[in-house]
Amino acid sequence: MLLCRSNLTSKIGAVNSADLRGPARNARWHTDGPAACLDDEEHMFHPTPSKPSPEPCLQRLKNETRARHGALESRSVLLDPALSRERYLDCLCRFYGYYAPLELRLRGSPGWAEAGFAYAARYKSALLAQDLLALGLLPARLHGLPSCSALPTVETTAQLFGCLYVLEGATLGGQIITRHLQASLGLTPESGAAFFAGYGAQTGSRWKEFGAHLTAFALQSGAGDAIVASANSTFETLDHWLYPERITAQWVPAPLQATYPVPSPDSPRHAAASSP
């Protein structure tokens, strides 16, 4: 701050040497106008450093989950130009085995109501079931699919938001996968690609809505560390479930489509399952 020389001179005349040794030493002197000519000495020459603003929680999540997120994406075959219908069905079966039990836990949590967040409008396992049936999986086979038990812990509201960051974030990448499925396999949301289509044209706005709730909760609760830890746990458990051969190299599971074959549209079993 600049010192106003003329005003400073007149003010100093009113201050004796005793004042300079006493508490008045740090007194504030001001001009008659709105600008201060001499500020607090301690403030002028020893300013208190301002604390850096905390990193927004969404940015923290992006930065601190990048490694696990990238590893999971690198193993995906969903954008493979040679993706077959059978391999795609295998992927959906595995996703269903993770999402269905996890969503049962998420649905039953009181944390959503406490945070004022409408999670019920964001269930995904029903879309996976819709796709599997559209691709020819029989209902009895659907209910008998393997189910993941090593799920992330979702007991606190912070853990809920961290977990949902992963599930909701997947809807963004799902838009790219949806276009690939239509181009390579001729699938639409009505014929087997509803899960990856997600919210369709509303995907961007739904993501922003979720991000706003997560950010507000993180600021209010100060639970950023717990949210990030939960997101990483979700990425990790999903990776372990989708690609167990990476964890135990000695045991490579048979493709799920070998256990749950896809009947052709003309087969009697498919016709019977499709009839009311």
TrEMBL record:
It holds the Pfam family Heme_oxygenase. It comes from the Bacteria. InterPro entries: Haem_Oase-like (IPR016053), Haem_Oase-like_multi-hlx (IPR016084). GO terms for molecular function: heme oxygenase (decyclizing) activity. GO terms for biological process: heme oxidation. This is Biliverdin-producing heme oxygenase.
